[in-house]
Specification:
Chain B: InterPro entries: ATP-grasp, ATP-grasp_RimK-type, ATP_grasp_subdomain_1. Chain B: One of its GO terms (molecular function) is metal ion binding. The complex is a heterodimer of chains A (201) and B (316). By secondary structure, chain A is of the alpha+beta class. Helices cover 32% and strands 28% of the residues of chain A. Chain B is α+β, with helices and mostly antiparallel strands and 316 residues long. Chain B is built from 8 helices and 15 strands. Classes of the chains: A alpha+beta (201), B alpha+beta (316).
Chain lengths: 201, 316
């Protein structure tokens, strides 16, 4: 489900999920090809954002601190955060592997027994994970550092609604992935922020 | 002279034809003075050290080949296939929308959204394009998830199955032919042409019939034996996508030429280029910006023998 608002000759398609081959994604494609108005966000930006290694490369080039990533056919060091890279990938789904047994089991699962590669991000033992939904660059937190990074993510990918997974290591914040917004997991504050922010017809 | 990389994965290396084709690329690139590197997915970070990248693995926006293409672009490395070509060609909805926008002749084509999967809508599509019709899941490749449906019931059944994989499907008029034309185009120039002879057991170039794989026969065809309308239509279709390397599939029926699809990452390992010995070096030259080699043979300058008014050049 998506909403479109037209502002200053730009079609803004607002959706919680612009995933490849969804109706929202095709709405962007169709508007881009028709060429009547400029479209926001762009289909290229949403594809980039939801593919973890591409999102992190773009984010790094934009000066956003990221977790370094590697592609592997199965071997994953411990501890690591693991994402799949294939037709069925969803960046909302990630795995934390902490030992050899988990690493073997998860890599077998995400690579479909070695058929596809995976993306991993090596982390130290003392890491924490924090999830934030970003609405037009705004985020519900008092942490100025996260506010700044959230705004930079918005400026880079120009996606109205997005979820960002951060990893915190020794008080430093690193982007791990960007994914569609899961409405059922939004806090009251976040829902209220969406209501204030959205420019729905 | 520069560093030329070919991005491959384990599927690329699964047949001896593919392997031979890759070795030929290596030999030609090296004979042109370039350093040659095979790159596997776990070496993706090395892309930024190259001068040019050629992707030889199945392309789709959701798989590792798209990552390789974007990493190349973000690091200023010239790449075939570029990400825009992958985004358009790997997705039949996107591709056909580009064809329609550029007035490329297609079989009658309709899109079916998940929310429209109702008997009255299916009936409306059948009334418009007839039966049998071809149903395509957008990210089909090698004829997978392309099915011919003969009745409304079959249409409904196959549509429901495909709609689990995509929110929109393609329904297309069935155009019966004995073979498909395949025209290889690089940067708006034809670099080879061939025929894919459709196996008699099926309607598509690859299929699984009674548990057995059947494949088309490939026949390379000299340029002067290809109808002019096939060439002009193929160029129009390729130009509607971009300036990369494309294999355009076309059907000729009752005096009409229809584009069936524009493929990025076209196959080059099954004698498609038998009569076009310069096809590989042209690809390497284009990627490496090597002007010495670029389209040096007068006979191969197809754009010069084609009426430019018949060729669209409005790239999106």
């Amino acid at each position: 489900m998506s909403h479109t608002t037209i502002k200053d000759g730009i079609d803004c398609v607002i959706s919680k999920d612009y995933f490849y081959k969804t109706e929202s994604y095709y709405k962007l494609i169709s508007k881009e090809i028709s060429g009547k108005n400029k479209v926001f966000p762009s289909s290229n930006d949403v594809l980039d954002a939801y593919i973890v290694p591409v999102a992190l490369t773009r984010a790094e080039l934009a000066g956003i601190p990221i977790l370094q990533w590697e592609i592997s056919s199965g071997d994953v060091p411990n501890p690591s955060i693991v994402y799949s890279v294939n037709y069925f990938s969803d960046p909302s789904t990630y795995y934390i592997v902490k030992n050899r047994e988990e690493s073997r089991k998860i890599s077998k699962h995400v690579t479909n027994c070695g058929k596809y590669p995976l993306c991993y991000q090596k982390v130290p033992e003392n890491f924490e994970i924090a999830n934030f939904s970003i609405f037009f660059g705004e985020v519900c937190t008092e942490n100025e550092n996260i506010k700044q990074i959230a705004n930079k993510i918005y400026q880079t990918f120009k996606i109205p609604l997005i979820n960002a997974l951060f990893v915190i290591i020794d008080d430093k914040i690193f982007l791990s992935s960007i994914s569609p917004v899961n409405v059922s997991k939004l806090s009251k504050e976040e829902k209220s922020m969406i209501e204030k922010t959205l420019l729905v017809d | 002279m520069g560093k030329f990389g070919v991005f491959v994965d384990r599927q690329t290396l699964s047949s001896s034809n593919q392997l031979q084709s890759l070795i030929r690329f290596r030999d030609i690139a090296e004979s042109m003075g370039h350093e040659f590197y095979f790159l596997f997915p776990n070496e993706i970070h090395k892309i930024k050290t190259l001068d040019g990248l050629f992707i030889r693995s199945k392309t789709d926006p959701m798989n590792i080949s798209y990552v390789a293409s974007r990493i190349a672009e973000l690091n200023g490395v010239k790449v075939i296939d570029d990400s825009k070509s992958i985004q358009i060609c790997a997705d039949k909805i996107n591709m056909y929308l580009h064809m329609i926008k550029n007035n490329v002749t297609l079989p009658k084509t309709k899109f079916l959204r998940k929310s429209e999967n109702k008997p009255e809508n299916l009936k409306g599509i059948v009334e418009e394009i007839g039966l049998p019709l071809i149903l395509k899941e957008p990210s089909t490749s090698f004829s997978m998830r392309v099915e011919k449906v003969n009745t409304l019931e079959e249409f409904s059944k196959v549509a429901s199955r495909f709609l689990r994989l995509s929110d929109v499907l393609v329904a297309q008029e069935f155009v019966e032919t004995r073979f498909d034309w395949r025209v290889g185009i690089l940067n708006g120039e034809v670099i080879y042409a061939c025929k894919y002879l459709i196996p008699k057991e099926t309607f598509k170039i690859h299929d699984c019939v009674d548990g057995h794989r059947v494949y088309c026969t490939v026949e390379s065809v000299m340029f002067d034996e290809v109808p002019n309308e096939v060439i002009t239509t193929a160029l129009k279709a390729a130009n509607a996508v971009g300036t990369g390397l494309y294999g355009v599939d076309l059907k000729e029926n009752a005096g009409n030429v229809y584009v069936i699809e524009v493929n990025d990452n076209p196959s080059l390992e099954t004698t498609e280029d038998e009569f076009y010995p310069e096809a590989y070096s042209k690809i390497v030259s284009y990627i490496m910006n090597d002007s010495r080699q670029k389209f040096s043979d007068g006979k191969m300058k197809f754009s010069e023998v084609i009426d430019p008014d018949g060729v669209a050049n409005d790239r999106n």
